[in-house]
Structure formats: C-alpha cells, structure tokens
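Subject: mismatched residue count in predicted assembly?

I count 301 residues in my input, but I want to confirm that the predicted structure covers every chain. Input:
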Amino acid sequence: MLTPGELQTEILSGPLSAQCAPHVQTNAMPKISAAEVRVKDQAIANILNASGNYTEFQSRFCTDLTFYAEVINPTTGQIDPSWTNAILDKLDAIAASSTMVKRAMSRVYGDGLDMGNKATQDQLNAMATAGLLTADEVAALIALAKRPVTFTAQQVSVALRGPWS
Amino acid sequence: MASTKPEAQITWSGASSVTVDSAAQVVSDEFPFNVEDWDGEVEVSVDNLGTPSSGDVCNVSLLYTTGDILEDSGNDYTTPDHAEWIMQIDTYSEDPARKTAFIRTAPTAFKLAVDCPNAATRNMVVRARLVTHRPQ
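Triage response: the counts match. Full output below for your records.
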C-alpha cells in the first residue's frame, strides 16, 4: 500500500499525472467546497483504479490445481498448464534434495501454500537467484497472490492535502 | 405558566469564536447554568479555513462541574481525558457544518472542549451557542 506521500507523487508526477491534473486540488489553491472537492478526489481515485497499475499481495493459499488453472506464461500471456507442469517438475526435483522445499511442496499438493507470504516469496526468489527456477517462473507463481489496489477519495484527499505524517 | 428559551454564545477567552490551529484540545470559558434551566441544547458550528480533506473533523466534548469537589476554591471540572464526547463534525462531508446535541443542565456549569486533529494543516473556526428552556 502506498503511503500518502507516495500516492501524492503518483498523482502529481506519475504516469497518470496528465489525466489526474484537471482534478488536483492542493492546499496552495483557493478553497473550494467539500462537495466540489469530493468529486475531484473521487475522479482521481477512479483514474488510478481504472489503470490497473497498482497491485498488492494478499494471503492466498494455492495448490497445484490453482497453478494449472491460473498461472500465466509471460511469453504467450495465456494460462499454460504445460509450462506450469514444467515448473512443478523443477520444484519436485528441488524437493528431492531439500527438506524445506519438500515440506512446502506437500502443502502445494495438499491444503495449499500461501503465495502471498513473504517467506514463501523470498524462498522462490532465492531459487531464481540460484538458477533453479527462472525469474519469469517465480514471478508467475507469486502473481497468483496479487490483487488490485482500490484507492478511495479519502486516500486521495490526504495524499494531496495532508496531513502527511 | 409562561416559559422562555434564552440563548447565549459560548465564548473562548471572551471571544464568540475560536480558531483552532493545532491538534491540541481547546476549552471554552465556563458557562454556569441558571437555576431555572431545565433543558439545554448546544449547537456547534465548524468552518474549515482550507479545502477539506479526509480526517478534517472536529470532536466536541463537554466538561461538566458539580462545584467545588476538592473543597478548596472554585469549580472543579471534569478532567480533559474524561470529558463527555457529544459529537464529531466532519468537514470533508460538509463545510461549513453545524450540529446540535442535548446538554444536561443539572450540573453547576460546563465548558465546551473541541479538538481538531488536522487543524495544524487546515485551521478551523469553531463557534457554539446554547439554548436552555426555563419554564418560568
């Protein structure tokens, strides 16, 4: 989740700043009514939300069936069970020599492994660093726990007019 | 039997309004009740001096006194942390905004306490007025 200061930077100078600009109301501008400013703040929130640019991780327990059903191959942009199967084969091979991965994979084939958990993500990233998985494969697995961030007019108001601390 | 509804402005250091410019609690002058005040209603007005933002609220509380509980001198009021909260006015919802609340008249007197958490960023002008019912 962005801090108010980070959100302000996104609104004023991020990739959507030109679209947001007509709706920006800061403390340096002449006062307008609460009714008017709520409309402006909501307009900016709508622009940010419609962009799909902002995501965050949530806790999500995934099984091998989730992987087959949802993992997207970045090369094709499509759900790709064959590509996913190759990832699972690699993980099974790693599990043969790692007790920790073996136990994690037992969750994947059981009740599910939390792909939003930072420890899970760190472990997968370490596998990519070690060359056991590719960065694309790790990113595709971790993406299962991503969800879009929804901004509100209230968040926009604090980002633009503070207080920021 | 005729009755009356006298009105009076709540004052802050003698002034009929106060500009709140920090998050600190601001307390009004004391307002002693008339012995004939059976009922009371207080109305609070808040005007945000900037363009409102989420969280630009004014919390209003009452500090009552039953008199000299410490038996030393003067009225002893409810201490600030134990004030009776009566309303929150949200200027991001409506600005300026006004709201009324019932006030008990059995105590000897009261003070109005307001705190506006974002007032250091956007000052707020607060006013309050009391009307009581005197069935005399």
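Residues 71 and 143 of chain A are 8 Å apart (CA to CA). Marking this ticket as 'not a bug'.
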